[in-house]
Amino acid sequence: MEGSTLLCVPLVAKTVEQMAADMAAAKAAGADVVEIRLDHLSAFRPRVDLEFLLKGRPLPALVTYRPKWEGGEYEGDDNQRFEALRFAMDLGAEYVDIELKVAEEFVRLISGKKPENFKLIVSSHNYQSTPSSEELGSLVARIQAVGADIVKIATTAVDIVDVTRMFQVIVHCQVPMIGLVMGERGVISRLLCPKFGGYLTFGTLDAGKESAPGQPTISDLRNVYNIRKIRADTKVYGIVGKPVGHSKSPILHNAAFKSVGFNAVYVPLLVDDLANFLSAYCSPDFAGFSCTIPHKEAAVTCCDEIDPIAKSIGAVNTIVRRPADGKLVGHNTDYIGAISAIEDGIRGSRAKDAAVSPLAGKLFVVIGAGGAGKALAYGAKEKGARVVIANRTYERARELANLIGGLALTLAELESFHPEGGMILANTTSIGMHPNVKDTPLSKQALKYYAVVFDAVYTPKVTRLLREAKEAGAAVVSGEEMFIRQAMGQFELFTGLAAPESLMRNIISSL
Ligand code: SKM
């Protein structure tokens, strides 16, 4: 094993037969440990079932019998629960998890009887929030004092900043510690365990088999995040957005990093407030970020320096922490990614390097006035197009149109806007993005005035807008092409190396 963190698959099946099958699957998936959640079994018979589960088990076992009052399923009395856990220990289970609230009693029960290789995990769960650093520190001390071999604390992330406190506590803990922050905002506490020295992290067999909110699959831990390769000196990059779950950036960048042997991991970062996030994650370990909706404009004010093009655009989609002085430098790779994708889409197989852009002189309609809208509007203008900004709120459209010199419309007005044929349309809003795939920013009726339609949304690859545009006779350019190109630019800024283009294309087309 290269990393020091154990990968544990929680077993939450209702029958012992299914648990045994899942145990074998966990081994095949590359787990180090399984957690047998006795409280999930629908008709648990302690002696028979524990013998069945523990005899001939393919992996070391952690046995947990979580009561309702600590977020589990068990509703009976504690004595029966303790008996089952003690029996599991006697049968050779490598670990037993007991809740801090009753740990003293359980420790008394097993005192002097612990087998040599047995380890007692004493756990505390908070399903509401993550306490202050001081409170976490004193919780660790209480868990240690009760006689834990391994400390386990699971809290809930209300904000991604909460996770920094857990990382600090793990780094300073004198005994092995499992420190996890539950929920989508806490996912990095699970992915970055080896970096901060966490003893164990949970990975499910499949989505839907979680025993706590935010658990990734073991397959993603191993194959997307390359968790076995993460060490203390591994740099962290990530996609900052809200939402962020749909992003394919982690799959793409992790594979690209791996292909060139770059010691870094790329994670999803569900961020509510960009300024708070950047001031909390200010160590050199957090080396760079991609920014997506809704943070691209806030990123301009949060960076210490902005590249001149990103400054003119007024939006940043890439932040790099300069190694020499730790300063955050903002860039924009959307602009070139999107514009070149649209130009190549129009040119088709014709000469790609023609001096005059096929956008020159065209009427170019941008839907949306956020970060991506600004990049597209700026790019189209640069290429000599006449630009129109259409936005749900007119004021935002007006501001951007004033900035770059163009016309502003509301989305409603765009429906009947067709001063000429052969226009180009670019959607830069998230309308139509997974899971809202039935939505579209413009009616099919209005699409017939466009020769080319581009959608920055890339999940799904063919949005309703693109499907209807094609049916209306337009040439379409998928956001996937922009996504690949902007990511290539980011890779170069992050690593200083040429982007592995064919690998990146293969990854995206295989999804
Ligand atoms: O500008 C890009 C960003 O860099 C990454 C991204 C994503 O991961 O979905 C989308 C775009 O906003």
Mind explaining what this structure looks like?
- With 511 residues, the chain is of the alpha/beta class.
- The protein folds into 3 domains: 6-207, Alpha-Beta Barrel (TIM Barrel); 249-332 and 485-510, Leucine Dehydrogenase, chain A, domain 1 (Rossmann fold), CATH 3.40.50.10860; 348-477, Rossmann fold (3-Layer(aba) Sandwich).
- Helix content is 38%, strand content 20%.
- Strands 7-6-5-4-3-2-1-8 form an 8-stranded parallel sheet. A 6-stranded mixed sheet has the order 10-9-11-13-14-12. Strands 17-16-15-18-19-20 form a 6-stranded parallel sheet, sandwiched between helices.
- α16 links the parallel β16 (386-391) and β17.
- α5 runs parallel beside α6 (162-172) and α14 crosses α20 (479-495).
- It is elongated, with a radius of gyration of 27 Å.
- The mean pLDDT is 96.
- The structure holds (3R,4S,5R)-3,4,5-trihydroxycyclohex-1-ENE-1-carboxylic acid.
- (3R,4S,5R)-3,4,5-trihydroxycyclohex-1-ENE-1-carboxylic acid (SKM) binds next to loops.
